[in-house]
Amino acid sequence: MHMCIPTQRIPKKAAVQDRLNEQEGVPSVFNPPPSRPLQVNTADHRIYSYVVSRPQPRGLLGWGYYLIMLPFRFTYYTILDIFRFALRFIRPDPRSRVTDPVGDIVSFMHSFEEKYGRAHPVFYQGTYSQALNDAKRELRFLLVYLHGDDHQDSDEFCRNTLCAPEVISLINTRMLFWACSTNKPEGYRVSQALRENTYPFLAMIMLKDRRMTVVGRLEGLIQPDDLINQLTFIMDANQTYLVSERLEREERNQTQVLRQQQDEAYLASLRADQEKERKKREERERKRRKEEEVQQQKLAEERRRRNLQEEKERKLECLPPEPSPDDPESVKIIFKLPNDSRVERRFHFSQSLTVIHDFLFSLKESPEKFQIEANFPRRVLPCIPSEEWPNPPTLQEAGLSHTEVLFVQDLTDE
C-alpha cells in the first residue's frame, strides 16, 4: 500500500534545518539570543514526504498469522527498545563519536559493492559536510541515502531499486549521491540530523532561500519506477529555486567582475598618476642636481681663478729685479704671446730659465699652461724642472744671446 503524504512538519522541519544550518555555519534556530523569544520561520517551507508502508495481510490465513505474531512482535520490539535504552546509561553508543568519517564512507562503499555489485549510482566519496558544501557550490540536488543494515527491506531496495539501470542513470546525471550505513558513526550522525522514521530512507537536499534545505523525504520500500517518478517530481517542483539562485550568482559574479574591473581601472589610473608624479619628482631632482652641479662648477672655477691670481701675484712678488740696460750681463727678451701681443723685459745671464717662466706666468694675459720656444735654432726651453732637467739651466747655459725673441705657446687645452 502506497501512501503519499506531503505534509507541513514544523517540528521536524525545524530540527532538520537546524542540523543542516550547523553544517553551513549558520546559527542554530534552537538557540536564539536570550532576549528574544524562540521563533522558527516556517513560511513557504514544506517538506515533500512520500512513505511506502508494508503490504497489509490478505486472506484469512494471512490475517490469522498476523494476529498470532502481533503479541510476539510487540513484546520483542518493546524488550529490544528497553534494552537499548538501558544500555545507553551503561555504555554510550560508540556511533556517537565520529573519528574517521571518510573511512566510514569508504567502508560502506566496499561492503555495498561486495554484496550488490559495482553497478550502482556513483557514491560521493567524502563526508556529509563536504557533500553539502559541494552541492551548495555547484547548485545541484543532493540525494542522501541512509542504509539500515538490520532492516528487512534494505536488501531488496538496494538490489532491485537502487541498482536499477534507469535509477542509476537518473541519479548520476541530475544529482550528487551520498550514502552511508547508520551502523557507521558518520551515518548515525546524519540519521540524528535527518531523523528518519523507517528504512530504506532517502532525503533530497538543495540550496533553497540561501540555506541547504531538505525538500523531499522518501521512506520505505520504493520500486524503481516509483522512485524515478518521486525524484523527478521533487526536482521539478524545486528547480525554480536553483534557477533563481543561479541567476543571483551570475548577477553577483557580474557585479563582482564589474567592481573588479573598476578597481583595476582605478589602480591603473592611480599607478599612472603615481608614475607621472614620480617622473615629475625625478625631473625636479635632476634639475636640482644639475643646478647644484653648475653652482659647484662656478664655485670651483671661481676658486681656481682666485688661486691662480694669487699664484700669479706670488710669482710676481718673488721675481728678481730687472737689470739695467747698460749691464753687460743683461739679456733683452721680447716675448710673443698667443694673443699676438708682445712683452719685453731684461734678465741676467746667470738667472735660471725658471725666472723667465715665472715672469710670463705672472702676466695677466698669459695662458695658464704654456711652453717657451726659441726660433734659431728652434727648440723648447726647459723652464720647468723635469726628469731630463731637474734643475733648469741658466740663460747663458741655454745659449741665449743679448737680444732674443721667444715665442709663448699655449698648452692649456692639451
From TrEMBL:
SUPFAM superfamilies: Thioredoxin-like, Ubiquitin-like
Compartments in which it is found: Cytoplasm; Endoplasmic reticulum; Lipid droplet
TM region positions: 63-87
ATP-binding recorded as keyword: no
Pfam families: FAF1, UBX
GO cellular component: endoplasmic reticulum; lipid droplet
Cross-referenced InterPro entries: FAF1_2-like_UAS, Thioredoxin-like_sf, UAS, Ubiquitin-like_domsf, UBX_dom, UBX_domain-protein
Gene3D superfamilies per record: Glutaredoxin, Phosphatidylinositol 3-kinase Catalytic Subunit, Chain A, domain 1
Segments for region (Disordered): 268-330
GO BP annotation list: ERAD pathway
Major subcellular site: cytoplasm
Superkingdom in the source lineage: Eukaryota
Compositionally biased region (Basic and acidic residues): 272-317
Sorted UniProt keywords: Coiled coil, Cytoplasm, Endoplasmic reticulum, Lipid droplet, Membrane, Transmembrane, Transmembrane helix
Molecular function GO labels: ubiquitin binding
PROSITE patterns assigned: UBX
Domain UBX stretches: 326-408
Function statement: Plays an important role in endoplasmic reticulum-associated degradation (ERAD) that mediates ubiquitin-dependent degradation of misfolded endoplasmic reticulum proteins. By controlling the steady-state expression of the IGF1R receptor, indirectly regulates the insulin-like growth factor receptor signaling pathway. Involved in inhibition of lipid droplet degradation by binding to phospholipase PNPL2 and inhibiting its activity by promoting dissociation of PNPL2 from its endogenous activator, ABHD5 which inhibits the rate of triacylglycerol hydrolysis.
Protein name: FAS-associated factor 2
Natural source organism: Suricata suricatta (Meerkat)
Organismal lineage: Eukaryota, Metazoa, Chordata, Craniata, Vertebrata
Record gene name: FAF2
